[in-house]
User: Which sequence fits this backbone?
């Protein structure tokens, strides 16, 4: 595990400047945040797996998807999506309805219970994150917020082909 404040922070490029070192530090922070996320989500009355929660969030973001579109968003196969849909429908989290104009197509949407679970999970996660943020100095919170905004902005900008880590 890397240390966010350990020896070796002062590198030739300056403290906190080396993208590879910062990436390792962020890995640790993301793992900690992932744990916080999971624990907060498990506090809801109906326990859903991270995969099931993600599937519900996709429907929240894109209501009315058909099964094929939902599977594509989730990057899973159609049989897996169908089983996932069956489970979430049986749990009362989503419903299927015939498309109003395409008789052969079925649309998926969240039920009120599904929307409630997502709100509850989001609220619990925000509360857990706020506890950690309260332990930080105000200037650290501002710096974190700025850094996250910059990161999101950089992620929205496509890398030049030669820098794309997915290219070989």
Assistant:
């Amino acid at each position: 595990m890397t240390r966010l404040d350990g020896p070796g922070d002062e590198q030739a490029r300056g403290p906190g400047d080396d993208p590879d070192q910062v990436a390792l530090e962020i890995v640790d922070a993301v793992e900690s945040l992932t744990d916080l996320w999971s624990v907060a989500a498990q506090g809801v009355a109906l326990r859903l797996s991270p995969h099931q929660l993600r599937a519900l969030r996709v429907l929240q973001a894109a209501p009315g998807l058909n099964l094929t579109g939902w599977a594509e968003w989730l990057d899973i196969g159609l049989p897996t999506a169908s089983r996932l849909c069956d489970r979430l429908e049986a749990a009362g989290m989503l419903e299927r309805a015939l498309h109003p104009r395409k008789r052969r197509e079925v649309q998926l949407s969240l039920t009120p219970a599904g929307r409630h679970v997502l709100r509850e999970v989001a609220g619990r996660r925000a509360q857990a994150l706020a506890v950690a943020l309260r332990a930080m100095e105000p200037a650290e919170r501002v710096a974190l917020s700025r850094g996250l905004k910059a990161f999101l902005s950089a992620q929205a900008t496509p890398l030049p082909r030669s820098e794309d880590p997915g290219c070989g």
Notes: Residues 6-13 have pLDDT under 50 and may be disordered. The chain is about 60% helix and 5% strand.
